[in-house]
Amino acid sequence: MQDALFPEEELPPAPRTVTAVGAERKTAAAVRPAPVDEAVKTLAQALPDQVYLGTSTWTYPGWAGRVWDRSYSDKQLSKQGLQAYAAHPLLRAVCIDRSFYRPLTASQYERYALQVPPGFRFVVKAPSLVADAQLRDEHGRGTGSNSAFLNAELAGQEFVTPVLEGLGAKAGALVFQLSPLSAAQLGDIDTVLHKLRQMLLNLPPLRPRAPDAVIAVEVRDAALLCPAFVDVLREAGATYCLGLHPKLPQPEEQLWLLRQLWPGPFVCRWNLNRLHGPYGYEDAQRRYGEYEQIVDPDPDTRALIARVARATARAGQKVYVTINNKAEGCAPLSVRALAQELLNESAPDSQGSASDARRAD
């Protein structure tokens, strides 16, 4: 389980008075960012302010030389790596995945917020407590129906309220990733959508505490990608999280949902390269090793994300894109390639109208 990487106290204790020798040891143990070349700095400065790119978590020793100055243990990175991660000019966002496995407290979110600059934004996954329709064993197999699925009170209490209290203005996208539904639920989509509607309409308001924040819904069942689903999102002021995962249709086949929700923010989580199939996370992990380089480039997906992100930013809307190592092999390099794609393609003038942006999809 991913949560095992994150002990209950994921950050070091508050600083205390130490001797000179102790201070030297403390400094030596700190995670330091890798030097950033001028080309990356220039690329980051050219990106629109509305665009927040990042990765899915930050605990990978294989990013040494790209994000960290040297190799650190995953345990040390989970405790101390976020500040160094946020020092990279292209990494202005990160997805907190651990919140899916266990709800986090406001104080835990606050510790994250204190480590990043004001212009940084978090994408946060809702806990499976409310986002998974099934109870699951340690191997992920469904063992029964989850009575708390899409419960508005629990979603507010265990997710939205702690995020707002802890992250405040640094909250970006709050993502309800709906895990695969059971066969019975897939046969009664109307009931699922009714529950989703009731939950979304009864969540605590995000503003004014988090003015840039948006509620987004990601799915793993293509059956949910229907006009009624869009109606629910629109009514609740939520958006669709473009989940790039082999369980779903090709990305181009999902863009109609974003057209129906236009204008609005763009939330995208690039999860897994399609070549590995819907259950290919372990295969991707074996193939990509320490996630040191791009192994399976996917320029078509990258171009599509860039096109939608560019159009969204030009319409004055926020863009939150986080990339998993299993998308191409090395998430920080995928972020850099996506940033270059955003700037390199020809597009309308930066003051283009909303209709120009709409045509870009």
From TrEMBL:
Read off the SUPFAM superfamilies from this record.
Answer: TM1631-like
**Mind telling me which InterPro entries this protein's record contains?**
DUF72, UPF0759_sf
Full protein name: DUF72 domain-containing protein
The organism's lineage is: Bacteria, Pseudomonadati, Pseudomonadota, Betaproteobacteria, Burkholderiales
Signal sequence residues? none
